[in-house]
Design a protein that fits this description.
By secondary structure, the chain is mainly α. It is built from three helices and no strands.
Length: 73
């Protein structure tokens, strides 16, 4: 795989590797924290949709009975 293709697929990760390679430890740690926070936020947003669908999904239609019908028709 070419270097250009690798950089195009994972820009955040390659940026972190470049910072580590340049001995810029503080910037690399900040970039890792930003990347992890971003991925965690995305996961939480996806999970919020699942929870919302579970609790607020439209109820399925059930058979309605006539409560005034006592069966003596």
């Amino acid at each position: 795989m070419s270097e250009q293709t690798e950089r195009g697929q994972f820009p955040g990760e390659v940026n972190i590797v470049d910072k580590i390679n340049d001995n810029d430890r503080a910037a690399a740690i900040d970039a890792i924290q930003d990347l992890l926070f971003s991925k965690a936020a995305d996961a939480m947003a996806d999970y919020k949709k699942v929870v919302a669908n579970t609790f607020f999904d439209e109820p399925t239609e059930t058979e309605t009975t006539d409560e005034t019908d006592n069966g003596t028709d």
